[in-house]
Amino acid sequence: MASEQEVSNKQVVLKYYAVGSPKESDLEIRDSKITLKLPEDSNDASILLKNLYLSCDPYMRDRMSANDRPTYLESFTPHGSAISGYGVSEVVESRHPKFKTGDLVWGFTGWEEYSLLTSPQQSQSLFKIEHTDVPLSYYTGILGMTGMTAYAGFYEVARPKKGDYVFVSAAAGAVGQLVGQFAKLAGCYVVGSAGSKEKNLDSDNIGYTPTRYFPEGIDIYFENVGGKMFDAVLLNMRLNGRISVCGLISQYNLAESEGIHNLSYLLTKALRMEGFFVTSYYHLYEKYLDMILPHIKEGTISYVEDVAEGLESAPSALISLFSGKNVGKQVIAVAHK
């Protein structure tokens, strides 16, 4: 009976630790097998998932390196199990009391066709999808971790006030495209920078000269880039300005991070700079859904996805994040529901 349930399970595996700019050859597609039934000795946290969509995210670059410094997520293991990240999945079988066969969920899963979760930590990271009248792929982004990152980083960390001057770096990216629109909804003046003219959606490519668009200075800087951009912005922050540090993508491929020269402005302009973990704000997820779903359905917030078809496209899709080729949220469609 078990052999009748055994199916192919393609996986994305780290082949080599990435040095400098990651390459597609640092990853490989591996063929494996999986039995579509939970083992008899499975614990009450065990869930078998069929993965539908996978999320490509900048934080994954750090996990592709051999880190010798403290980090909040462990590195992937070369030639080990499938790499992992956020995704949208269908429950094939479950021993967990919160989930049943056929449920749709989003959360942490393997980059493979099917994933077996066995630890309480893994199953606790899953959110049951209750609203299916929107594209399921949105739960890799605007309705998942990406959306919560934009929401928490802007509303909870930056704490906008009507009339604030807001600057968003990497404004055409998955998080940046949402923060810019949240700022407009909050009654702020907002300008965003992107890596190229092709990426500019509703923002301007201002390079490293924010004074041109902010002659009176910046109240809120939503930081996704770091490096020279961050240095330039510090010069133009207003008194009591807030900096929400979400990412530093310009630094991820460097052997040594660039130094910041204008940190003295944190003191002389009484600035508040704060990094954050999105997981610390997941208790606000229902509140976020109440806010964002009406905007999606009414079309008052736009959302751009860059969807790559098939697990075989995963290496190129992930690497595109670090070469600036993608626009919006990079998603991999593994299977369609």
Quick one: overall form?
globular
Q: What's the rounded overall pLDDT mean?
A: 91
| Record field, number of beta strands | 16
By DSSP (H or I, 4+ residues per run), the number of helices equals 8
> Low-confidence parts, pLDDT < 50 over ≥5 residues?
197-206
* Category from helices, strands and their pairing: alpha/beta
Rg, alpha carbons: 21 Å
Q: Biggest β-sheet: count, sense, barrel?
A: 7 strands, mixed
Question: Helicity, in percent?
Answer: 10-25%
Q: N-to-C SSE series?
A: EEEEEHEEEHEHEHEEHEHEHEHE
β-sheet strand percentage: 15-25%
End-to-end distance:
26 Å
Short description:
The chain is α/β, with parallel strands linked by helices. The protein is 20% helix and 25% strand.
How would you describe the overall organization of this protein?
The structure is a single chain. The chain has 337 residues and is an alpha/beta fold. The chain has 8 helices and 16 strands. Helix 6 (264-268) links the parallel strand 13 and strand 14. It starts with 5 loop residues before the first strand and ends with a strand. 42% of the residues are buried. The model is unreliable at 197-206 (pLDDT under 50).
Key phrases:
single chain; 337 residues; alpha/beta; seven-stranded mixed sheet; five-stranded parallel sheet
Write the layout of secondary structure elements.
Layout: E1 6-8, E2 11-14, E3 27-30, E4 33-35, E5 47-55, H1 60-63, E6 84-94, E7 104-110, E8 114-117, H2 120-124, E9 127-128, H3 145-158, E10 165-168, H4 176-185, E11 189-192, E12 218-223, H5 227-235, E13 237-245, H6 264-268, E14 272-275, H7 285-298, E15 305-309, H8 314-320, E16 329-333
Parallel strand pairs: 10-11, 10-12, 12-13, 13-14, 15-16
Antiparallel strand pairs: 1-4, 2-3, 5-6, 5-8, 5-16, 6-7, 7-9
